[in-house]
Design a protein that fits this description.
single chain, about 400 residues, alpha/beta, Arc Repressor Mutant, subunit A, five-stranded mixed beta sheet, binds zinc ion
Length: about 400
């Protein structure tokens, strides 16, 4: 049994543990003396903390090793590639995806199970989601890596405080406790489970994939059945007070327009979403993936009806996004999901609306970029968020490992 140290001491240790891991993550190969210099901590404190982080599997030595090499003086330190992985789960409208992110945020064992979730009950979909989690846990076991946390991406409003899914209009879901549901159906035990909007996770993944060269402030807009958007300000997702910001799909672009699944008329996603584009292009029925492939073939063959359908969507999208940019002043738009695929046809009419409607466009032109992540953005972002939560605050994970082995 461990006895807890006094709260103050525990808080300091937790803070220092995070400080040391951050220094190692920022400078792979850094020495203990380097960590001490960088953090301002005493060398003895750094040694004891790196020992704990190494034992917990978060940190590994670099460079030549003797058999008893661990902890040798002068050995460089790095994040262990076999350290805790994040398990990302995405419950989409017409698929369920899961994957594992390593401590560098790279996605592994990405699996997608296609199938329309709308005719299924929430209970059925959650059972499929639990199955995807169990498969991902098995994948982690086969790779010999531990799972340190889980994050679930959903196409709906998630309360940042409680993690409750309030509504997912395209799934017809209301008030779902995703965390409890997954705990009941899987062997996740006490692993931390975070929940969030899929578009926010996708936007975060887009920021990470851009690296130092990518934009730090942008609007990530992804078209699937719904339209998801995430607002990135200075490299961080802007979530709003309750975590509900970025519901751009339900921006009204035509008050006299057709009814949206949310109940209101003329929402952007009703007019510029994937289903409307396919319908306008004269492609109906069948699996979404096949329909999109057919649309792309027709666009490449300059089929007039297909081109007109995408151009109409581009105009509505530009109309909606211009309002968002007028409100929040971000200099770039990244097109993700289906919109990334349709970008060559979508962008010209979209840009024309931006030029016409963004009041500051003459002085601060808007850059339109295409995401390189494709449909895996949200699950990649969720998995990376789960692992980043451990890197930001490693003490709970380290303590769990110590209890598990001690
Ligand atoms: Zn709506």
């Amino acid at each position: 049994m461990h006895t807890s140290p006094p709260a103050g001491q525990h808080t300091v240790r937790r803070h220092n543990c995070a400080l040391v891991l951050r220094a190692i993550a920022a400078s792979p190969g850094i020495s203990r003396a380097g960590v001490a210099a960088r953090t301002g901590l005493a060398k003895a404190t750094v040694s004891s903390l790196t020992e704990r982080l190494t034992t917990a599997g978060l940190v590994a030595p670099t460079g030549p090793q003797s058999r008893a090499g661990r902890g040798r003086r002068g050995t460089g330190l790095t994040l262990s590639p076999n350290g805790p992985h994040g398990l990302g789960l995405e419950i989409g409208v017409d698929y369920i995806a899961a994957g594992l992110a390593d401590p560098q945020g790279e996605l592994h064992a990405h699996r997608v199970r296609h199938g329309d979730n709308r005719p299924r009950s929430a209970r059925q979909v959650l059972a499929l989601a639990a199955r995807a989690v169990r498969t991902a846990l098995r994948d982690a076991g086969e790779r010999g890596v531990p799972v340190g946390g889980v994050a679930v991406a959903v196409p709906g409003l998630v309360d940042s405080g409680t993690g409750l899914l309030r509504t997912a209009p395209n799934l017809g879901w209301q008030e779902i406790d995703l965390v409890r549901s997954l705990r009941e159906r899987t062997e996740l035990g006490t692993l931390p489970i975070a929940t969030g909007n899929e578009a926010d996770f996708a936007a975060a993944a887009e920021f990470l994939s851009g690296g130092a060269e990518g934009p730090r402030d942008f609007l990530h807009v992804s078209g699937e059945v719904g339209i998801g958007a995430g607002i990135i300000i200075d490299g961080t997702v802007f979530r709003g007070v309750h975590g509900h910001a970025g519901e751009i799909g339900h921006l009204c672009v035509d008050p006299a327009g057709p009814p949206c699944r949310c109940g209101a008329p003329g929402c952007l996603e009703r007019l510029a979403g994937q289903e409307q584009i396919l319908q306008d292009a004269g492609i109906d029925g069948g699996a979404a993936e096949q329909a999109m492939r057919l649309l792309l073939r027709r666009l490449e063959a300059a089929d007039r009806r297909a081109v007109a359908a995408v151009e109409t969507a581009g105009r509505w999208l530009g109309t909606g996004l211009a309002s968002v940019i007028n409100a929040v002043d971000v200099p770039a738009i990244v097109l993700g999901g289906t919109y990334a695929t349709l970008q060559p046809w979508l962008e010209p009419p979209l840009r024309a609306e931006l030029d016409r409607r963004v009041i500051s466009a003459a002085w601060s032109p808007i850059t339109v970029l295409r995401s390189r992540l494709g449909s895996e953005a949200a699950v990649r972002g969720a998995a990376a968020a789960a692992v980043q939560a451990i890197l930001d605050d490693p003490e709970p994970y380290v303590a769990t490992r110590e209890q598990g082995t001690g």
